[in-house]
Amino acid sequence: MAVKERKSVAPTLAWVGEVDGHLRIIDQTLLPAQFREIDLAEPEQVWEAIRALRVRGAPAIGVAAAYGVVLGLSDVATKDRSAVERRVAKVADYLATSRPTAVNLFWALDRMRNVVAAHPQLSASELVARMLEEARQIEQEDCEMCAAIGRHGAELLADGTGVLTHCNAGSLATAGDGTALSVIYAAVRQGKQLHVFVDETRPLLQGARLTSWELTQRGIPATLLCDSAAGWIMYEGRVQAVITGADRIAANGDAANKIGTYSVAVLAKEHKIPFYVAAPSSTFDLDLPDGNAIPIEERPESEVTEPFDRVTAPEGMRARNPAFDVTPAALITCLITEKGLIRPVNAANVRKVLGAAK
Amino acid sequence: MAVKERKSVAPTLAWVGEVDGHLRIIDQTLLPAQFREIDLAEPEQVWEAIRALRVRGAPAIGVAAAYGVVLGLSDVATKDRSAVERRVAKVADYLATSRPTAVNLFWALDRMRNVVAAHPQLSASELVARMLEEARQIEQEDCEMCAAIGRHGAELLADGTGVLTHCNAGSLATAGDGTALSVIYAAVRQGKQLHVFVDETRPLLQGARLTSWELTQRGIPATLLCDSAAGWIMYEGRVQAVITGADRIAANGDAANKIGTYSVAVLAKEHKIPFYVAAPSSTFDLDLPDGNAIPIEERPESEVTEPFDRVTAPEGMRARNPAFDVTPAALITCLITEKGLIRPVNAANVRKVLGAAK
Known about the structure:
The structure is a homodimer. Chain A is an alpha/beta fold.
């Protein structure tokens, strides 16, 4: 019996209106207890929403930032073109400071910047309209990217597979069906029975709050775990594949993703379980030779010592809170991109599948 | 500069009074936000305190259960001896149902049962007095055991070592200085500079709440981590040794301990970091050939889905919550017992160090 899949109740993010419109997002910090959409009308609100993880997931951050640039242009659309140009540069630079690790953020902002240079003939208002069109294209491409990743990746999951995932790389992390979860959704649509094991993903519990929410919305069988239980569940023989997303992938295939991903990859290796990373080509940063060059965001200690406003550590106790870690290419069985599968994972195969152009 | 060590403010558990006395424990579920001692006057209260983890840690559970038997005898001390004998059997059987994994519980209850057979000449009141003496002996031996484990283990930690620990195997887990933490405390007393990395230890955060509390009380430099960050901290090169406690160790050296210990052991292997398990001989269950025979307690799903009374998973989401996992002997560099070091870890060396008697 195929699992009946329900659609998510609202898109993770959507532009409302035309050039003078605004960005509507699901405030993911409130899920699953509260489902609330918030409207962002200023670049500063987009910056704060990205920093505070109201919108998160590398692809979704890119789309949000692109619309954020458009939000910064409303009061210069009627002025001269050079005012628009200066504003684009300023707002893009500003939004780039919201989070350091996900490269899709910088990629999307570069695309918005490039519109200016590519269309020297446009007036101020025409340029602003074209910027909105570019942001919409980024969003549309993101949806298509998710579908293509699902298509390419689904063949890797046999019927009856137990799949473990870490953090949330689903529809809440993209404008479409997600990256890692898109593979799962595509396999389920093919009629495969899967069981998803969801790492809760401390400190901010994106697995418990967001991935669990997506899976229960869609009626896909799933079990939530403390992160520390992943190894034991593998030892019990319940996991036949691991899939995660990524926030930045270096030229050699080393992949930065949510803290804990590296541990899961080591555990997968120990148990001879394939470890897959699903991400669009926009997540690759081919300027970086390997993962050592990827900047790792350190977030506030209080996310560890005061989880959800409850003090759990004694006064004076220090904490480390790296938001990401880097999984070396050698631990990744296959990278799943919208352009196809990259395996084995090495610099030559990354170049080959992504195309020399990039 | 040697670290100045402050003593813990109160013992983890202490008997107050004589045969008609009661057991006073620190309610560890309230730490570190509240330091509160509670008095237990009935076996039912001891059972609840063990089940609810107000008192926890394999050695401390054993001591608490021994005193719990004494609490069950207050109303039969003036009766005939057979009433005492029947009550001992009944209360010991009852307390054995409080938690399934830590073997020290059963070991301590057996010692209390054996007092009855070993002293057929005693009257009812004399037997009750002897039972209290036995419980006190178990407590005293536990203190000496902790000191001996610290003595044997300290040689394994060089000056300047970064030590990672999981859960709490400290003074709060024993009547003395702890097992894993006793090794750290002994090394610090020798003037060695250590830095302790503390896994927070979801779901119940014994690392964040209890180990952090002990270390800050004693002024030992320490850093708290989400469990999922342990692998990355090792990758960064900050950890040169891992030490944990154990709740039950099979004849071949396979060791059950808090969920997540197995993952840490696999990560230690990947990073070529020695992995030590510190536990008294009472934690060994030589009747079990290997770890497959150790029963693993499954605790309520709500500890995962509603951490600290905050709902973090959507309605209908299922969870797994094994309280323990088993680390195979092959992943353990050395077992640290009060009778000496067991290395390499195998059945022959376990027998040799513990002595054939057991």
